[in-house]
Amino acid sequence: MNRSLIGLGALLALTACGGGDSAPKPQKSTTGSTSSSTAETTTTAKSTDTGGAAKASGSQDWNDSMGTATVSGAIKFEGVAPENKAITMSDVDPKCPGGAEETILVSNGGLANVVISVNKGLDGYKFAKGTGAVNLDQKGCQYIPHVLAMQAGQTVSITNSDDTVHNVHSYSKRNQAFNQAQPAGAGAIEKKMSQKDKSFPIKCDMHAWMNCQVVVFDHPFFTVSDENGNFTLPKLPAGTYKLVAEHESLGKQEAEVTVADGGTETVTFSYGQSAP
Amino acid sequence: MSGQHIHAEPTNFFRKHVFSVDHKVIAKQFLWFGLIWLGIGGVMAMMIRWQLANPGEPVPVIGSMLFPRTNGVLDPATYNTLFTMHGTIMIFLGLTPLMIGAIGNWSIPLMIGARDMIFPLLNCLSFWAMFLGGAVGFISLFVPLGATEAGWTGYPTLSTTINGVGSGETLWAIAVFLIGASSIMGGINYMTTVIRLRAPGMTWQRLPLTVWGIFLTSVLNVLFVPVIGSAMLLLIMDRVFGTTFFIPASIMQGAGGGDPILYQHLFWIFGHPEVYILILPAWGIIGDLLSFFSRKPAFGYRAQVGAMVAVTLLSAVVYGHHMFTTGLSAMLGESFMLLTMIISVPAEILFFNWLHTLWKGNLRLTTPMLFSMGVIFVFGLGGLTGIYLATIGTDIFLHDTYFVVGHFHLTMAASALFATFAGIYFWFPKMFAREMNEFLGKTHFWFTVIPLVTVFCLMFVMGYAGMPRRYYDHTSAEYLRSLQHLNKYATHAAFLLGAAQLVFVYNFIRSRWWGKPASQNPWEVGTLDWTMETPVPHYNFKEIPEVFTGPHEFSNPDIPDGKDWISMTEKLKA
Amino acid sequence: MRSPFTQLVCLATVAIGTLSSFKALNFFGSDPRADEDHSQMIAEELPHARPPRGVPLTITEGTWLRAPGEEWIIQQNELARKQGLEPRFTEDPSAADGEGAWIDSTGFIQKRYDEEEDFWAYWQWVGPAQLTRGRRDFVQFCSSCHGLDGDGYGRSGQWLRPSPRDFRQTNFKFTKVLANLPTDDALKRLIKRGLDGTPMLPWDLSDEQITDIVQYIKSLSPEGMGWRDPFTGIGSIVEAGENPWAGRENFAIKHGEKVYHGVAQCMLCHPGYVNPRDLPGLLDQPEDTVYRENLYLPVLKDSEYEVLGEKVKILPPDFTFHTIRSGQTPQDLYETIASGIKGTAMPAWKGSLSEEDLWALAYYVQDLVEEYKDKPAERRGLMERLREGL
Amino acid sequence: MNRINSLLAGVLSSRWMKALAVVGMAGVAEAQGGNRWAPFPPASDFGHRFSELFWLITILCSISMVIVVLLLLIPLLRDRARPGHKANYDHGSSLHDKRLTAVISLATFIVLDAWVLAIAMKDLREAYWNMPEVDQAETYPIEVLGQQWAWHFRGPGLDGEFGTPDDILEMNQLTIPKGRPVSFQMTSKDVIHSLFLPEMRTKKDVNPGSINKTWFKPIEAGEFTILCAELCGYAHYQMFGNLTVMEQEDFDEWEESASLLGIAAYDPEDEEAQWAWEWEE
Amino acid sequence: MNVSSAATSTLSKEEVRTRVDVTLGMIFFIGSWTMAFGTLFLSFLVLRQRVGVWPPEGIVLPSFPLATVATLILVASSLGLHRAVRAWDAKGGGGEREQASSAQRDWAVGVGLGFAFAVLQALLWADLLAAGRFPSSGLYESLFYGLTWVHAAHVVIGLLALLWAWIGLSSGRYGPNRLSTVSNIVIFWHFVDVVWIVLYLGFFVF
Questions:
Q1: Of B338, B196, B340, B320, which is closest to residue B268 (Cα–Cα)?
Q2: CATH superfamily to which A128-218 belongs
Q3: What is the ipTM of this complex?
Q4: pLDDT greater than 70 at residue D218
Q5: Measured between beta carbons, which residues in chain D are less than 8 angstroms from residue B296?
């Protein structure tokens, strides 16, 4: 009423509500968080598309030949590994064969599915976007692999090898979340992960037990521990790094490591039931 | 005699025309004020009818000016505001000032032979309190978050902050409070004046029925308007200060919180007497006018007064019939049904006496007479349909349908409005010393009464067919779609009704300034107001007259000079 | 000083003085029955009793909100051109100190660089006057369910399932877009259409009012979420292409039944509508195929939506019983199926099924609704057929 | 009085009366054409009583109104002022006139009011206020929760108890069995609503903060209307629903599957969604 | 009361008539206001009856001793004013009214106690507010604050009127006619007193 009657109200000089909202003058674009970007970055970035990331000047472009060092190691699991609960699938979908949870997989004292990555120490380099595709399969109503690490710019190609339908429900933050159905026999779902992203799950709502973890890095120095808990990070440049190991339920651990050109260092992370 | 002194006439413009304490000036102020609000309320009614007949179509002519944001379409919120304000305006700002403010102020001192009201300053205050109330009500239309949308009854919790936090509803409550204060001031003044300032010989049994009606209305005003005042205070506190008189604490358990039903009780303790507040002066006026223009004494004067007194006494104890569906207990429901039926007895007595007054009279069919007879007709229709609503069995179905709308428009609105018109046509020559045009007056009557009865009788049909009131759009629910044609007919009739009022406006304005100068007693009646010269001098009576005969001594064989009327100050032969 | 009255007066005066000084010394203290938390508790029980003074109605600062990209702008202009209207946006390269912006009647859209996130995105400027108008309309029309702060917990919104949207969660179920967030037009359409079978009605508000409300709702996104998240995708309503079954609706229904129970396996969550004895035949599956238990009941599913901090679960509808929320025409159903329902288990099917299958599903679901919903005798017949032989 | 009543009942049920009713309900026939002038016929037991009462009042009122109009018209035509015509000088204060006033008023009261009152009381006591006991097996209880702007209905489900997982929750749709008394308890979340079932000829306010009760017994199966009859804000006009009255066997089937769907939808962690209250006797 | 005492005093016929006029108006006013406060009490009773335990348990109640003292003070104030007016009525008449010193003292004390009551009322609120009880805290608070607010508004109006009357009295402006005004204001003050007593009984005694 108030605004509908503005005409009359204006006549009586009684209008109480806000006046017209004429388009404000376009402003200089500043985010307000930090000082305005330099002209240089503005122009370079303008030429690239939404993805193109330009780090601060002073860094050099990375190429594979620059790294010669290697960090390898193992993830240990101390104590008795909890038994993985069996999942009864047939009452939800008789086409699912059944299986067990894959949250904590321990074999020979090594913990699988831990993402190891370099966290600090790469400031001097500028990394190109990743290329190619990473496969995520759905088989036996489980995701294979259960943990997926990839580089920004890569595409995740999700396939369905089951005789049943799945929906791929991604909870990504910086990359667009999606929830796409994938019936048996349907083609692969290709999703480009163009931004780095913290660990997020991909789930299937039809089969509530199905989930996998995906991490997207903006550099190539990451890996996932194999079934015996071993990992290798090759082609690192010399330097001091902070390594981070991250498990979906047991949490993060950090370690500092310094490698020389051509050298190899070993790092061991150790998880237990009471791990942080 | 105190209050009967003659002070010098004020010469200052403000003292004379604005803050005057002269009852005649105040009566005219009330008259203009009431007429303007009646016009505003009427335009709102036209917009409501337009929306009902053509849901969602832009209101022609004034729509785009009033509602530019929607290109002239009434949105549901605006529609709710319109019917809320239509009710509030018509009752509190239209009929109350016209009937009680204007006619009451004009006729009481003149008819009882007083020089002014007993408390002239209070009288002036009464008008300005109402003016302020009107202004606040008007401002409430333009505040942010919308004007009031809770209906003129303003039931909580719809009228509390649960529904809206805007200030429109608060301002509405303040406006009703102020208007109530004005009514109380007027009521106290009228009552005291009638009791204390009657001229010598003006016994209670010689009091014109008009004065009786307004006197009894004042009693009701003084007794029951404070109730709505308090209810509005509580509502304002709920809205502004966060109290919880009417807001239940939790949804299912009543304990600990307020009670929305309490408000309904308070409202209708006032609300039902309010109906009689508006109708009692109307009864009084037509009781007089029917006698005046039938040239015949008011039949059963004492019975009429008795009936009005009985209605006054009963008015507060029948209010429960407004609440049959709110969950009254069986005992209360039956009691209120019985009491409501009983209150029809005085109405039947009045009808009998009015009709008997006409019987074997010498009817002068002037405009005021036509309107008085119109009151009998529309009040008959409205009153009889009251039986449906007093009976719980039928009321359960008809409650809050258009049947109710038709009913109360015929009883409270149309009857009171007709009596007001009758009063205006009747007293106009004395008020403005000019005559109103009779032909235009009669045109006005016939073009008012026919569409009016059509509109509200169609509403009876709609209500009987199950159409709930206060719906923005009756085509939204499948059940009501097949009734839409009735809405169209009603709207056509309503527009005709609205157009007919333009005749009145033209007649009123033309006669006010350019009309034929009126003689001292054009209607040939004997009450005190018509015995003084026209225009009425300052302080009315130089000498307080002494009264010897009753107000309705028409066609008395004992009247000297072969006239059929006698002034109250004259004596009958022998 | 001798009269008893005067003495009484003196006494009273002394008493006042004493009491006042006691008062000043806090002699009375507070009532031992007082329970500190109790007043708090009652205040919490009565959220509605908040005095209206506490409700801010004016927004003084404008805000940047995410906008769909250039493609969409060009598309809008195309649309306007097709309807013979002026283009909605005009590009002004000299605007914003030479940075350029797309300008329309209510504001402008600009491509802006977010230094912290190192990201380019399209942003729209919404002015304080528009937000204030939207805020007021929101409070007047929406707040009874969606809450005065847009938290989805107004007085009428309590206990309501499905619960009214909490706009701070920026999760909209029936916008029918493939991206995470809808465009303004998609939201406006939703508000105008309402959601069937819920108190979210078709709102008879003017276009302008709805525009303002939509801008306000968008501005409720918390920092880094929804329309304040540079990475969110904003998309238009999914486009239904040519209807491949036009004129062959009966075949569509037949085919839809197959898709529903077969390749799409809708019955994993929704109920199945074919007797399991007949299913293998229908789907060309081996006779001994087993189907899930309680095939005729939908399965309660998790959702991303939170009420009072708890995730709520949602029951996929039984089409013969529940009301479809967002339209029952094949077109509506196509859009819903193709785009999925955000924040719930219902995925987007566009791209995963062929257009033919999608339309067939839409026709099948529409047929289920038409045949059985609110038709007690027919539905009873269906249930008897389903139970036969079990 | 009884004789008059039975006479009236005879008149009301006579063919003559039915013809009048048909005229009155011409709308029903005309409804196919889209327009009607009357409500749809009553579908509950006391609906019929109230319909009859309605027509009784209509007849009485029509007669009264005709008399009033005649008494207005006759003087209007006969007693107009004209030269030589004189009014009858009569104050009506003689004993005869007083008696006449009293007799006519009382007679009108008896014919118009007391008669209606007697029948209304009888109807109310026998039907409307004769609330069925809920522990009678055949009474079907419903809990109603009104809100801006929707109706929530909760049926007890198969176990007959409220507040259990198998409760049947419906929104803007109410399903009840035919031929059994249906007992309602209702309250509102926010503002006052009024449950208006035009075909059932019943209406009851739904008040926040207290529980209101009503009942009726549907005697016809079919689809009927639910409206809100108390102004409840902006979208008052859109607060309508659908009432389905089912034959008992259809209803049994419906109740079972609705109950099962209720269980399927039951989320024990979402306590807030379980808004049932203890059924009050 | 004033009417009867006036009638037996030395007031002239016209003065008596004036006194009757205005007192009658005042009686109607008081009757009207009784309905207004009656409505508030009715609400009080209805709402109170909805709560099982009254006063509700576990909340801070307004201070009982403070309220009792306030009641006594208001009654005393009323008595003082009544005595003053009666004395003037008895002695007044014509223009020769002498302002007896005791009457003047009674008047001063009455008005002073009226102000003291206002102060105590403010203390009552302050006490409750300090304990964290606001009008929105619950039904008891709603009723207490709401009803005392309305009453306090009348106290303020009454005090202003008394002050105004005092100015008139001390300037000697009031002849016997205008003394009716003073007596009317005192009647109003008695009414305020009675309303408070009912409030006191409702909130603190029963």
A1: B320
A2: Cupredoxins -  blue copper proteins (2.60.40.420)
A3: 0.86
A4: yes
A5: 87-90
